[in-house]
Structure prediction request, 212 residues.
Amino acid sequence: MILFLDERKQAVIVYKEDGSHEIPFTEINSLDVVLDGQEALYVTSATEVEVTDVVSLVYQLAGQEEQIIEETEDTRFYLWSNNKNKVIIEDINLTFLGKADFKLYDEGMKRKISNSPTLSSLVKRGKIQIVGERKKRVLQREANKENKKDAEIQQKKVDASLDSMIIDKPVADFDPASDSDAIGIDITDEVSGTGVRQIGGGGLPNESGLVE
Prediction:
């Protein structure tokens, strides 16, 4: 059996031959019942790897030569924004939510490009790219890693901000009706331009309204 501690879920996950069992931290005393007197492996660390890494490792452990699978030609293509922030093409009501957002490049999308000077310009300048299935998989993995890293950095900032808040008077002294004890946080950051709007940080629109 294997034990994982999931801080996000606030639970202990036990993997047994008959399946997995999730035990909330608040019910941790029931762990004895699930283990039924047996010992378990407690996993304290893990490594995130690509599928190809696992496949290669299995071939090595089995003492077999790894089989190289030739990838077929791309049959599907997508529009992809290389901007990590939200980009809105206003003249055709099209939004890219970041680097992990892909739009199918079909006949309908081709017509949208033809009908939208803004989108057409972004494609010509490489701000919006046409990518195949294989490239999409690579970009998707990179975007997921980048988003995960950004989320971890943001969480550290939040934790540091909370740690720095020092209450120097008793809770009873706070007046619920007073605005003096309230902390206002403005998290809105929207830059508007002509034709394209970018939500978040990064480049600003130039004179033509396109994101640099």
